[in-house]
Amino acid sequence: MTDNRPQFLLGLLERMIEIREFEEGVRFLFLEGQMPGTIHQCQGQEATAVGVCAALQTDDFITSTFRGHGHALAKGLSMQEMLDELFGSETGCCQGKGGSMHLGNMQKGMLPGIAIVAGGIPLATGMALALRMQGKSQVVACFFGDGAVAEGAFHEGVNMAAIWKLPVIFVCENNLYGASTRVDLVMRNTRISDRAVAYGFTGETIDGNDLLAVFEATQRAVSQCRSGGGPFLLELLTYRRTGHSRRDPCHYQPKSERQQWFDRDPIERFAAQLQSDGLLDAAGLEAMKSQAVQRFEAAVEQAKAASPPTLRDLETDVFVSEAST
Question: Which of 104, 213, 219, 221 gives 232 a disulfide partner, CB atoms 3.0 to 4.6 angstroms apart?
């Protein structure tokens, strides 16, 4: 990566900008009533998705949550297949059957998002066990929020992964709030990475708005998993700039706290770093943003014209046991 490092770094920034512009565009489409369903957005958390996925190989897997747009784009899903899905089209990444809360594409290494809090943790552990039993070298990165740590599925999943030394990276995006409840109201020890010690494996707390810190920490985690060293818990400290869901005005977030985190915006920080290093100028940054908006708008127009699922599609992608036939 040494010779291509400038291009690699610019690519990371471009992907974060793509996520931000996608989320901002989708927000207005939903507010205007052009899309069905609901949304849970990730503006402000772009570095967690991009930093983690950049350290994975294309055949590695991730599991996601109902706040999964950024994870999907970071893992290689296209704006087009995602917008087709959000508009409920048969050309969507889940054939229009998943919507915002269940985005994914197994061919690109992303299990469709799981809306149950902590629901992806035992699945990621099971996937890691399956990969190990098959003698494969892939790892699984499992995204979840700080609220998931209070669920039994978290403790059961990480304990099993620790006992069997499974190749799974547990990625906690700690944005300080489980819906509207601040993390220090529901746990005495708010350093979530400490939970790993209780189960006998490695945990680290990282500035989740520092893209390269996230990337480098994930590289360490991937190396440990691939070498048979067992699971890894990454706690990424970050902050969402929007509400829990689309109608949440964020009144529970103090203005001073919001400003403090907005001043640490991951995109602005990384762009400033690249400009300081001479890899980017103001014109280049604006071009990245403009191109991302243009790609989004073109994908929206195509998604609006895409065909919805048919009645016959009700009978596809459905498991039927032999006993019921």
Answer: 221
Name the pairing type of β-strands 168-174 and 232-237: parallel
| CB of 240 closer than 8 Å to CB of 44 | yes
Q: Is 43 helix (H, G, I), strand (E, B) or coil?
A: coil
Helix-strand-coil percent breakdown of the chain, rounded to 5? 50, 10, 40
Beta partners for residue 110, in sequence order: 62, 105
Report whether 48 contacts 208 (CB < 8 A).
yes
pLDDT, tens digit, 9 for 90 and up, residues 183-233: 999 999 999 999 999 999 999 999 999 999 999 999 999 999 999 999 999
DSSP-derived 3-state class of residue 237: strand
CB atoms within 10 A of CB 286: 10
Give which of 261, 309, 284 is closest to 84, Cα–Cα: 309
Residues 66, 112: Cα–Cα separation, whole Å: 10
For residue 71, what is the enclosing H or E element?
helix 69-75
In single-letter form, the type of residue at position 37 comes to: G
On the question of pLDDT at 247 being above 90, the answer is no
The residue length of the chain stands at 325
CB contact at 8 A, 279 and 4: no
Helices 79-86 and 282-305, axial angle in degrees (round to 10):
40
In the chain the domains, ranked by start, together with CATH numbers, are 5-306 (3.40.50.970)
Q: What six digits make up the tokens of 312?
A: 């016959």
Degrees, nearest 5: CA angle 242-122-107? 75
